[in-house]
Queue: 3 jobs
Job 1
Amino acid sequence: MPLVETSSPATTDEVESGRLLSWVGTVDHKRIGILYICTATIFLAIGGLEALLMRVQLLFPNNTFLSPDFFNQMFTMHGTTMVFLVGMPVLVGFANYFVPLMIGARDVAFPRLNAMSYWLLPMGGILLYFSFFTGKAPDAGWFSYAPLSTKPYNLQVAQDYWIIGLLCLGVGSVAAGINIVVTVLTLRAPGMSLQRVPLFVWMSFMTAILTVLALPALNAALAMLLIDRWLGAAFFEPDRGGSAVLWQHFFWVFGHPEVYILILPAFGMISEIIPTFSRKPIYGYAFVAGSSAVIVLLSYGVWAHHMFAVGLGMGADIFFAVGTLLIALPTGVKIFNWTATMWGGSIRLTTAMMFAVAFLLEFVVGGLTGVMFAAVPIDWQLTDTYFVVGHFHYVLIGGTVFGVFAATYYWFPKMTGRMLSEKLGQWHFWLWVFGLNATFMSQHFLGVMGMPRRVYTYADNPGWMILNMFATLGAFAMGAGTLVLLWNIGMSLRHGKIAGDNPWDAFTLEWATTSPPPADNFKTIPEVKSRRPLWDMSQPELADWKHGKTPEDSGRRPSKALVCAWAFVASEAVFFLLLLVGYVVFNSQHLEGPNAANSLDVARTGAFTVCLLASSLSFWFAELALHAGKMVHFRRWLGMTILLGAIFIAGQIWEYTGLIMNDITVDENLFAATFFTVTGFHGLHVMAGLVTLSILLSLAIREDFTSKQIQVFRGVGIYWHFVDVVWIAVFSIIYLGLMQ
């Protein structure tokens, strides 16, 4: 009995769905994945052009091709584009397309949320690039260090577009991450335990967890910077008591996990491609998966190795140096897993496999130079030189980009039904291998020779011009290789060889359906007994489940609503944690003017706090009534919850009114700035909860909400209880002075 439906003549609906406009309203995870990849490709062309402009400027010493100001704009836009508009979206695109297929699901858990996540990508990109129409683009670097990004040093509205654009991208990324987490945990095929999922799925799952927990740190920093610029606060203005170093802490709390957000999916891609073309199962599956979880945990304890030159102190330097060395272990040992997989295998050297092997070699260079920066004296010497630029480009290009190229050649037949040209693939491969090493190995030498980064030109020092010319030649070689790939894709879509369902004789479930897959992916969801289900079906006598047992699947799947709620709450917890850290940092010493002791009415706020906490109790009673099917009691308790929450908001409005009447506003001092920021965002979360609860009450009154939807209600309850828990922390720290 076939597992998938065979192709049939196109119906009128299918022809209609092929029209361009249908892509705008699509919620099909495969189409959204393609939209992500195509959008990232457009921004790759833009970001690549920006890189080439910079390389032309650096071709000769004392060059005037670009002005200093425009050069700053180019390296700011290039870095921002490549990280936020190319690297992350293309990986999310592959995850969107293949994770549901590889776990035997019909779609992602929340298709409409998936569509919203995508459309925030072009919105953020358009906002970012609209800044050019304001007279100039952002010029404070992709890291936007304060105080260069604050109003006194940067009056341009372009910086505001940078902030708002990244906030859009951050919200979309968190939503996409939550969707992947819920999809993997709740929609796996029968028999597919978490210990049997393909490694690309596992790495995408780990990446989604990182995204959910890391992006809110950036969102919190961006919100504070926007409040500085628009409302006159001074979080990051040292002249008014703020801290430029705090921006670096907040940014790199996001920024270092971001490195693994960009590399873990590439690890997963390589972990699928190398076994397929070596005709062997992955060596050490459990270690590859487990070490990735270790990376997720350790990635939050190494951010300050980006800040060794700041002067954090010997204790902090030692702690983050040790953390950097530790995280290199689970990252580096994977190289041996992939090498051992190839050892003794029947290797088929396709273009995809060539990029996978090149990934191993190039990523090792980037990894080893990264470990060098764990030595604080080396970091002090090289941190502001081109050595750093060479290092992270070896990681992001030799790692992420080569992984994406390998995945493109590997999965293009599944996505389109046609094969890419191997001959053109060879040209693409060698142009990029030459270009990468010519450009960024030269920059390692330039860094050791003392050439600083982030400068628009350089003096005619011995050897610098030759190395820069070689680097520029390599950059143009990579640009030519990209054009070869695009030509290959265009020609193959029209005239490429028909691929068939499984041209590589691969092992995982995406190859069990047609190429390209139908709208609902599978006619029959296959049962999984091992990590290589297609091998088991094609070689029943040698089936993996007969010769090596993997942990059985219990068959239980958690509620989508509850997993989504917990994931969202986790992301918001990080957001509020950083806001509260900012409050503690700025209020741990005496401030002139308004402060908590002389400005806040603790007793009055305590009374309203009791109302908010009581709303959690009334919500619990509403949940019990819903579970028992007592809809009248459910509506009463739910109405009581809304009333108590509204009373709390009224109390907060009362407090704000009194403060403003006494001329205590967000721009008064750092107490006022941190107080209004923390309590204001909490109030917005309470109001969002009240709107949600009111919608549920409206549905209950219309009898459209029943006890069958208890899991949805519990999910809302997780959020509402979280809001109350956050307020306990806020009240304890701000009103009662805990930790000050």
Job 2
Amino acid sequence: MSEETKSLNFIEHIIEEDLANGLAKEKLRFRFPPEPNGYLHIGHTKAIGISFGLGEKYNAPVNLRFDDTNPSKEEQEYVDAIKRDIAWLGYQWENELYSSDYFDKLYEWAVQLIKDGKAYVDSQTSEAMAEQKGTPTQPGTNSPYRDRSVEENLDLFQRMKAGEFPAGTHVLRAKIDMEDPNMLMRDPIMYRIMYAHHHRTGDEWCIYPMYDWTHGESDYIEQISHSLCSLEFKPHRKLYDWFKENVHEYAKDYLPLLPKQREFARLNLSYTIMSKRKLLKLVEDKVVSGWDDPRMPTISGLRRRGYTPNSIREFIKKVGVAKRENVIDVSLLEFCIREDLNKSANRVMAVLDPLKVVITNYPEDKEEWLEAENNQEDDSAGYRKVPFSREIYIEKEDFKEEASSKFFRLKLGGEVRLKNAYIIKANNVVKDKDGHITEVHCTYDTDTSKKVKGTLHWVSIKHAITAEVREYDRLFMHESPDGDKEKDFMEFLNPNSLKIKTGYLEPGLARAKVGERFQFQRLGYFVVDEDSTSDKLVFNKTVGLRDSWAKQKPKAQANTQTKSKPQQQKRPAISVIQQLGKKYTNYPPEKQTKVKTEIQSLAKDVAYEDLEPLFGTAVKKAGTRIAVMITLKELLKNGVKRNDAINEFIEKALEDKNELLVAEASEV
């Protein structure tokens, strides 16, 4: 196997295999299909990167298609924001398309399905239909309206379109199989009545197609070769295929290519909410200032916070393309922006918590303009001049009256180097009536060749300009803010996610433009915010120079271990089964028997939809595959029907080299 082949991700392997099997390269076509019901967030960047990245790799077109099927939640504002964000990330789409462009064609195909006896109008309440749906282990039951005549169904559907019925009185359902083990195949709804103004079609329609019906057929109309989506859509693949294969009979002469749906693990990030519904709540409840608040995980929020397109693309590259769900530590994203800005951001000096220093042996009327390097990481960045005078500000935390030998900043009797300037020695302090230090009196030494351990940033008081500095931190204090089913995610909000300070900056920053990024030396990376005016500069903190949360993690984990043991019992059964399977092959026979019994007991709380994604577990993870096989046996005993995915999983297991896995598969 060549190095190039080894480096391919599993989606690229699928595409290469399709090309080898006769798919013409010019037939490759991809799409990114957002729903315009909110702003794009960091989780979407993975899907964006995969589809547009494949377009770049294979020189294939990528459509930007808005799946705008729910007018009650969609707005033109979201469409505009999505286009702006994708372009900012540096991607170009071939065509800007909308599912609403296909409403006429979708309706035409729905009518044809009715005529062919593959769709019918159901007039039950949503509650009645839900009750008839069954469960993952119990088959559903047919609607009393399932056998309506073709003529009656056509009449009702046309009258639904004409607006003759109130919302909720009728729906159009596909006629598939109410006993299918995949609940999505149990006569899914294709159309519902909805009297809502659509941001593009206005009031032309009062019936709107459901997502599963619209999405796949839009792919088919656009002749998408590979429909790539996140892992939660894997159970939908069977329905996706049913719809496209039936419609193919009506359009194969002019739409010959059937799209192939394949799924990848979505991007989950610690300390972050990825639900657009929950992000909208933060906006509506004014917890944040808007979708582009720099604390939000939206692309707009990250851009305003100072993130660069390159840092986000590098983050997606590091995350990679996987088949299994996992949670990426947000510190990786922060690492990527630090790495990027370290190379590109000019260094400047700013003081955010000032303490006045008077250099008593420096002439009162003297000032100097000293040379300072802009960026030691960039030879082309050059130098600038910064003013120095008798009175300067340093950070309050950089001085102590008394300190240990390990304190390498300024202390009484001690010396430090001022960045780009002189060495100073603290001699005495001035305090207010409450005993707080208001000034430190120092002397300076022009011999800068002396060795001193500490170096401080500073600004000249008489030259300093002021700016509003917004210090942002993580919005949530919990690693998984929506992972606790007994608590509302809002309970984990970080009360200190925003601190507003007055900063004292070197005067050259008066010319800084909106969007310019700088490193405030020893403090972090900052960007000029769009709220800035000619009279008032506003800076947002992008990220600190190092991970300030890393020190807190061990403590948080210790608390979890001591306080959260009861919660561990509430982990999803499928998660516990995966954990038990990891070391299964290492256990002695007696322990394996005990663990197998435990897995069998847990299996009663596992839904087939949760188990099927684990059929693709890597071959080398034999223990996990054995645990999945044991669980599958229990589900089959409890009424889950065999399907192609189950049969394929069992067949592969029977051919495996692991004798334990073969033995379990032989019993199915």
Job 3
Amino acid sequence: MSADDPLVRVDGLEKYFWENDSVLDRLLGDDPVPVRAVDGVSFDIRPGETLGLVGESGCGKSTTGETVLRLQEPTDGDVAFDGSSVYDLEGKSLTEFRRNAQVVFQDPFSSLDPRMTIGGIVTQPLEIHDWPWTDADVESRAELRTDGISADIVSVTVDDDVDKLVSPVDGVATVHVTVRSSDVAGDVDPDERGIAEAEGAVAEVAEDLSIDVERGDGIEVHVSVGRSTKQLRLDRARDLLERVGLSVDQLDRYPHEFSGGQRQRIGIARALALEPEFMVLDEPTSALDVSVQAQVLNLLNDLQTEFDLTYLLISHDLSVIRHVCDRVAVMYLGEIVEIGPVDELFEDPKHPYTRALLDSVPRASTDERDRERETLSGDVPSPRDPPSGCRFRTRCPKVIPPADLEIDQETFRELMTLRERVESRDISLETVGDEDEFDLEGGTVVAADADAFARALKGRLLETELPPRHDEIVEDALASVAVGDWEEATERLREEYESVCERQNPALEADDHPVACHLYDEEAGRREAPAPER
């Protein structure tokens, strides 16, 4: 993999959960219903980068992260890690991927086993993956430096398994040994690991290893790991706890003895235990107090620099995203709608959904209290039955009117909302008009009252005064609703007000700042909103 290639490449990833898919459902002839949690997601993450994945709760962010790590099996699509497909890995290759890709879970209270001590939690990944590792094909070698002693009388031997603690380069694990005369070395602590003294000579190894020295005709130095596997794992746990800001004397305590922020630090230490290259951070600060959030985010920043980590940060908190990320992917109802550099996306958002998300962030400055906000209408649709075309169209304030329809966008948005309510039959007829004004029989009005009922219903559903032609179309459709002919009303409104946004799903094109929206799609007939009819 070259330096310009992504470490993680997600291509058309899909993850569906199926309802009505049991043996009994199949025997009864029920068709399975897919819940489209993740539906065609694609993005890249470069080495050392932090990509933020942001969106409303339930949009599929966490499922995306779990499927990328193969904690969930995909329905379709692919994830490549370091050039290899994650879903093709088996055996040793899959185990290696598990070591290189870790996760920090959202809930620091349920993600730690309450029956295990903190030391046991942090060392558990080391035990599962049989750390520390040694390779018989790796050569062990020493680089010697002397001070006040001739190098000709010094011999150094290195155990074959020092690659447990020394990362090999080109198949060679190199340790750095320095031998000084006692006069040059001065006072030393012979009980300190990595330092040994014998008859006027002091030997020291730079790595976290043990060293022995003997003086005879010459000086013989021996470098070894010097600790049992259990002790190595315990030392690793102590080091990780210190790196995440906890005390080593807390190893024997249990999770319930820690605060939320401390538990999240323990989860981070556990994720770092195997020295991964890539980490999924699934809302790592959402369950924490604001002051603790800042501490954890700063810790993650420092650890990324220290360990050369690559992050996928999942969050619905835009302030966290802006503080930590290099690029941001915005997700809505299982799809990515916009990806861009963090500063560019926050300063110049393109997709109407991204703008609405940013408008929802409270501003501390009183200068912005009168700013205009793009509010969203309606609720998030169900992933069991997502809208056709652009999935955001049912709430979008910028939905595109048909090219031959001379009507302003705000009015068209109201008409689209009316259409959706008619199509879903989300209109209560019993509350129309004054008390006893209309006589409903079997949930419908008599044909003679249909026109008057339609005018009353229109006044309740629409706030905008429509141009005459559209007023007539709407009243005609609502008259069909009044007599119970919902299909006729749906068809009447669809033939007049169908938008390109519901016919075609906009693609996320390859670009530095791609956006999936027909407002930026020339083939869909991008145009400015026309002047309203009079």
